[in-house]
Design a protein that fits this description.
single chain, alpha+beta, Elongation Factor Tu (Ef-tu), domain 3, Threonyl-tRNA Synthetase, Chain A, domain 2, 3 domains, six-stranded antiparallel barrel, four-stranded antiparallel beta sheet, 19 strands, elongated
């Protein structure tokens, strides 16, 4: 399809969302009935429904009382994918406004955030994704500090709080060079420009707020490395408010439980972590001491070559310590651990230790089809990975 044919095809559907992103209701004629990925779809004479494009998800809503679950542009046609067929040729459409406005806040916020990265860190936006829960920007920088991210966020919110105008308009291809676009356009022909007053000019076909104040707030929540760049996750508007409310509730709960102020909470948590490490060290020493005494007691009660006992209250770590202490007495013995499966009356072995006098060595033996598997787990001299039955239990179930 050449540029002229594509333009004519596009003109078949009047895009009301370009004229007014705040309009949510319209009446129109059905031009064509199709099937898209096995679902009924229609092309309309005009529409308020925005099709998925440029990192922005599609609008949802209803058409003649039938749910519109997706909107896609295919070969210049805007297809409204429906939950079921619609009969009449003249229909009324209603766009899901909360979803539309959420996308407007996120997309307008992204433009401001992208230009803020340019101003503060000379970071170019390489990709943008508006997700269901959060949005992401991939920025062409190799690294970022907490302070630098805070500077970008501060600059973006300054523009939002100033409540600047956001305008959208079309510019002919031969005149687009006069517009100081942040990035050159990817398409040819007439270009739609989104202008944030005295701050940013971008080629974009998405739905946007009228003023920056409607975005409310932009908050960078996290970042990570990707393809030698940095990907930032961010929230705007209602999403940022819900995230703040959730985190504030968590913080209040922690403060109540730990009897701490918000400012003093990190120090209290750090103290608890250090105390927990100390308790674990002490517990380990006690377990090792207990295992030595228990091993001697077990050997005294089992003078033969096999030691047999039911230790229902032992953890996997305690079983390992006990088994290694029994082996440490230089005896030829076997030690098997078993666990009851939830809802099952029988026990399933999940680990076994063996000791050979010639080469003190422990193995885990698994039952299974064909040849049994043997894996070394410990030596008397302390070499080995240790008994971790949980890791291998799945192999037996």
């Amino acid at each position: 399809m050449n540029d002229k044919q594509e333009k004519e095809s596009r003109d078949l559907t009047r895009r009301l969302y370009f004229e007014d992103a705040y309009r949510t209701e319209f009446e129109t004629l059905v031009l064509e009935r199709l099937t898209y990925e096995g679902k009924p779809a229609v092309a309309l004479e005009r529409t308020c429904f925005y099709p998925e494009s440029g990192g922005q998800p599609p609008d949802h809503g209803v058409l003649h009382g039938v749910r519109v679950t997706d909107v896609q542009e295919v070969d210049g046609k805007i297809l409204h994918i429906l939950e079921s067929e619609i009969g009449p040729d003249r229909v009324k459409g209603i766009v899901d406004w909360p979803r539309r406005f959420d996308h407007m806040q996120q997309h307008s916020g992204q433009h401001i955030l992208s230009q803020s990265f340019v101003e503060v860190l000379a970071g170019e936006t390489l990709s943008f994704h508006l997700g269901e829960g959060a949005s992401t920007l991939e920025i062409g920088i190799a690294a970022v500090t907490e302070g630098e991210a805070a500077q970008v966020e501060k600059r973006a919110n300054e523009i939002i709080f100033e409540n600047r105008d956001i305008k959208t308009y079309f510019v002919d291809e031969d005149k687009i060079g006069s517009v100081p676009l942040r990035k050159p356009p990817k398409k040819r022909g007439s270009i739609r420009v989104v202008e944030i007053e005295s701050f940013d000019f971008s080629a974009c076909g998405g739905t946007h707020c009228r003023r920056t104040g409607e975005i409310g707030l932009v908050k960078i929540t996290r970042w990570d490395k990707i393809r030698n760049n940095i990907r930032f996750e961010f929230l705007c508007g209602g999403r940022a408010l819900r995230d703040y409310s959730m985190k504030a509730a968590v913080l209040r709960s922690l403060c109540r439980q730990l009897t701490a102020s918000e400012e003093g909470l990190p120090a209290v948590v750090e103290k608890l972590m250090q105390e927990n490490k100390s308790v674990k060290r002490d517990m380990r020493k006690l377990q090792e001491t207990l295992a030595r005494y228990e091993s001697l007691e077990m050997i005294g009660k089992n003078p033969g070559k096999t030691i047999s006992a039911v230790l229902a209250e032992k953890t996997a770590e305690e079983m390992k310590l006990l088994a290694l202490n029994v082996m440490g007495q230089g005896l030829r013995c076997g030690f098997c651990a078993a666990r009851a499966r939830p809802g099952a009356p029988h026990l399933r072995p999940f680990g076994q230790l063996e000791h050979q006098p010639a080469r003190p060595r422990a193995h885990r033996i698994f039952p299974g089809e064909g040849k049994r598997r043997r894996q070394p787990i410990a030596h008397r001299d302390g070499v080995g990975e240790g008994l971790r039955p949980g890791k291998y239990l799945s192999k037996n179930t």
